[in-house]
Amino acid sequence: MNGPAKRNYRLRVWRQKNGRSAGKFVEYEAKDIPSDASFLEMLDIVNEDLNARNEDPVAFDHDCREGICGMCSLVIDGTPHGPNRATTTCQLYMRHFADGQTIVIEPFRAAAFPVLRDLVVDRSALDRIQQAGGFISVRTGAAQDANNLPIPKQDADKAMDAAACIQCGACVAACPNASAMLFLAARVSHFALLPQGQPERSSRVLKMLAKHDEEGFGNCRNHYECEAVCPAEISALFIAKLNREYVMAETKNVVVGQKQPAHGGAG
To answer: Which CATH architecture group holds 124-256?
Structure first.
């Protein structure tokens, strides 16, 4: 029985020793790659060849390789995660690339995502945004208590859609302004739609937006590139909800006489 077809590719890979050194594209030959290999498996094969030749392997982020963790973060031929919609890099397969094709691979590009080495970037800025307000303080009980607080199905469905964000940062890499608003909107909307998220509802959006700006992300200008590349298919409509949450929080500050944060809104 014949195995999967083998293909050859020419790779142009971004190589950079660290964040302080200059980087450049280096060409490699990826030979005898099974068509059913994933993109990361293809890079594994290339790295095995580099190791055999005593050359430094290409550094890239990965973890679960199941499209869940959000660790894989490559720009492939100019598109974060590659040409397939609703697909993470680790779930992209080489059968989607023609035999002999030249593939350009580079890291996510954003001021808030500094390059650590080669294709690896520091995305901890997203963690700090989450830590600024992406949590709840109420006790939610155990699993058997879930039905004690009925939630309308429409709200539950929307909250689950927002919670699907895997925090990969593709929205930032695709946005001309390097904005993280789709990520932020998903986090804020997830909690705003549920009763457990109400105690910190106003402070959450203000704190997370302030941290977003502090980390150096740009503002939203409705290019919708974020929605197009999101592997979880998070809707840009959540950014509209983020704007409403922000306006309501600011209005509440004015009513109670609190100082307003210096921010121009989400979009």
So the answer is: Orthogonal Bundle (1.10)
